[in-house]
Amino acid sequence: MGLKNSTGVLLLISLSCIFSSSHVDAKLVPASAPISSLAPSPTPGRGSSSRFIQPLEPRGIDKIDAAPMLKSICADTDHPGECISTLIPYTLEGKSLDPISVLEAAVQATNDCANQGFAVAKKLHAVASDPLYKSCLETCIDSYKAIIESNHKILDAIAAVDVFSLNTELSTAIDNVDTCDEAFVEAQIDSPMAHVDDLLGKMVSNNLAIGIDLVKF
């Protein structure tokens, strides 16, 4: 398989998330994150990815068809349009929506996005030859792994009704998102992960707002 074809493949690595909570027994049914086909010109020694997570168009929550409770919860976040748009594919069966069930769904959505970022970064790293570019991608890979780890700890904190750990891990996730983008900025290289990191940043910011402001044990 040639470089152009191999770098145009988006690997979706699934990670099982255990959603166990004494408050919510709803079944979370994930759908594939929206994907957009892009075709940037490959940079010698760096490679490129032709498929990334589609950046969501900024939309007011009044223009999105969603449950009133979901709109109400997302209205308290910094990115309500992205909050609703990323959560709609995750249906909650058998339970009415509340901040805890919405946060659990949001963590799963964030986890799926981080997994896609991890897969893309790993693929680009495998075909890149530029040492500095590879180093930046290694930072991104570690960043996505850290976000996934934090997501598991967030779910554990919800199950244990541990407010301190919940708030700590929600805040840690934001720091982890920034490290990937910062690596490319410091290297003065355009990041191939910019779309992923932009969406992830908004998602973890929304998770923090829901967890700290709305979740009450």
Automatic annotation (TrEMBL):
It comes from Rubroshorea leprosula. The keyword GTP-binding does not apply. GO terms for molecular function: enzyme inhibitor activity. Belongs to the PMEI family. This is Pectinesterase inhibitor domain-containing protein. The lineage of its organism: Eukaryota, Viridiplantae, Streptophyta, Embryophyta, Tracheophyta. Residues 65-210 form the Pectinesterase inhibitor domain. The keyword Metal-binding does not apply. Keywords: Signal. Residues 1-26 form the signal peptide. It holds the Pfam family PMEI. PANTHER family: PECTINESTERASE INHIBITOR DOMAIN-CONTAINING PROTEIN, PECTINESTERASE INHIBITOR-LIKE.
